[in-house]
Design a protein that fits this description.
- The protein has about 625 residues and is α/β, with parallel strands linked by helices.
- Helix content is about 35%, strand content about 15%.
- It contains 19 helices and 23 strands.
- The strands form 6 sheets. Strands 3, 4, 5, 6, 8, 13 and 16 form a 7-stranded mixed β-sheet that branches. A 5-stranded parallel β-sheet has the order 18-19-17-20-23. A 4-stranded antiparallel β-sheet has the order 7-12-9-10, with no helix packed on it.
- A hairpin with a 7-residue loop joins strand 3 (about 30-35) and strand 4 (about 40-50).
- The longest helix has 22 residues, at about 240-260.
- It is globular.
- The N and C termini lie far apart (about 55 Å).
- This is Aspartyl/asparaginy/proline hydroxylase domain-containing protein.
- Pfam families: Asp_Arg_Hydrox, Sulfotransfer_3.
- It comes from Arenimonas soli.
Amino acid sequence: MKIQVPFVQLPVSFDAEALAREIAQVDQSHWRPHPNKLPGNSALTLVATGGDPDNDDLAGDMRPTPALERLPRVKEVMAALGATWGRSRLMRLSGQAEVTAHVDTNYYWRERMRVHVPITTTADVRFQVGDAETNMKAGECWIFDTWSRHRVINGNDSTRIHLVADTVGGAGLWDLISRGRPAGRSIPGWQPRPVPLAGTGEVAIDFESVNLPVVMTPWEIREHFVFLLGEAVPHPRLAVVQQGLLDFSRRWHALWSAFGEDKAGWPRYRELLEQGRADALARGAGEVGLRNEVGLMYMLDMYVFGVALGDQGAPNQVARKDVHGDAPALPGAAAPTTVRRQAGAARFERPVFIVSPPRSGSTLLFETLVKAPGVFSIGDESHSLIEGVPGLAPSQRGHDSNRLQAQDATPEVIAQLQQRFFDALRDRDGHAPGDAAVRLLEKTPKNALRIPFLRAVFPDARFIYLHRDPRQVLASMIEGWQSGRFVMYPNLPGWQGLPWSFLLVPGWRELSGQPLADIVTRQWETATRVLLDDLQALDGAHWTGVDHDRFLADPQGTVERLGAWAGWGWDQDLGGVLPLSRYTLTTPAPDKWRKHASDIEPRLAAIQATVDRAARAAG
C-alpha cells in the first residue's frame, strides 16, 4: 500500500523477549522456505487461505493456522492492533542474508498495509524504502510504503525474526496510525505505549473473507486507473493510453449495469478485458513507466486486467499467488482469444531488432517497417516487457546498466521472454500470430547494449544498425533530457542531476554531477561502441546498416532493400515524405543541432574514433 512517507512507527510496543521465547517452542519443521525461494528467507505461516500453512494464495477465507493457535502472545499482539487480518507470517532472515529490492505489486497489496513487529533483531538489520533507511528495534511496531522499492539487509550473523501481517486496517489500527511517528521525525513527548501480553491467547480477532472480486465494480476500476496514471512518469504516449483506459472503463460500466456479477455476463466481460488489454498495449502502455520503476502495463495487469473477473481463467489464477518483487504476475500480454497458445508452439523465424543509440530515428524506421506484410511487433518499445522478467531490471542488478550478456539468458528467462513477446505481437492489421512461423520486428534503444543476450534468446536474430549524424543525436538527447519526457530511472541511487533519461550505460556513476553534454556524449559513445563490437562479432549476414539521412532521402528504396534482406518483401508506396514519428520533440532540420553547437563540438574530438567507425558501419 502506498503511504505518504517511507516509514511510520506506531505508538505501541510489545515484550519482544517474551514473544521470542514463545516462538522458540515451535518445532523447526513448521518453518517453510520463502515462496519465491529467496536465499536465507523462511517463514512460519500464521494466517493463510483456509488456515492451510502450505497455501500461498492471496484470495479466499484467511484463517489462523495451527501455528498461530500455539502462539497466544502473537495472537494478543494482533488483537491489540485492532485490525482485520489477512495473510500473516513470522518472517525469518538468516545472518548476512537479505530481502532483495522489490515492489509489492500484487492486487492483494493495493489496499493492504504490511505491519512489522521486530521480535529478534540487531542494530545491523537495515530496512530500506526508496532513499530512506531505518532500523526497527525489537518490540516496536511499524508500517511502511510497500508501493516504493524496498529491501532488507541483515548485516549481522544473528537471525532476524519479524511478525509480518497484512491488513486493510481497522478502527484500532487507523487510530494508532494517526498517532504514529514518521521515521526520523522528532515529536516532543512522543513515546510508544507498552502493551501487556497475558499469554493466554483468549482474544477475539477478525480475519478477512473477501479479498478478490468476482466481477470488479466500475468504480474500483476507475480508482485503479486514476492511481496508476497519477504514478506514471511523463511520457508522450500517456494521453493516448489514458483515453483508451477511459473508453474501457465506460464500456465496463455499461456491462456492469446490465449484468453485475451474473455469470451470464462473464463471457462478455472476458472479451472486453482481452480487447481492452490489447488496446492498451497498442496505445503504448507497455512503454510507460511508473515512479517506482515498475511498468504501467505490468500494473494494469496486476490491478485490473488480471483480476477484474473471477472466472478462474489463467490470469485470475496467477493473480492469486504471492509474487515477490517485479516477477511478472502475467506472462506478458494476453492474446485476444480465450485460449493462450504457448510461444513454444510457434517458431520465431529470423526476428529483426533495430539497434541504435537513443534519438537516432529508430521510431520512424520501426513505424515504417512494421507495415511490411507478415511482420509482427508489440507496437512499441519493450522496456517493461524485458525488464519485467525477474533478474533483468537494473534495480535487480545493482543498477549497473542495461547491459545484458548471453549468460543472462537462462532457460527460464528465455521461456518467459519468448512468451511475453509472443503474447503481445500483432501484425499491421491488428491480428495475433497464428500457427505459422512468426516474423518479429522490434526496436528499443536499450537493446544496443543487449545484442549477445537477444541472440541467446532468439538464436537466428538479425539486426539493423541505424546510424545518424552524432551531432544531431547529441542535440536531440540534450533536449530529451531537458524535456523530462524520456525519464527512465527517476530514483537512480547516488545520481545527482536531472532524472536519468534514456538507456543506462556502463560507467554512469562517473557522470554524476557532470554537465549534461558530457552525459549524453558518454551515452552515445558507449552505446555505439558496445553495439558495434557486438555486431561485428557476428556473421556479416546477420546484420546490416542504415543511414538515417539516406533513409529520409529515399524511404521507398530503403524499405525495399531492408524487406529483401529480412525476407519480408514490401507491397506499399510510401510517397516522397514520411510522417513525423510519435516521439518527435520539434520539427527535424539538418542544422537544428547548431543550437547546441557550443556544447557538442568541443566534445567530438574525444569520440572521433567511434564517430568514424559508426559512419563506416552504416555503409
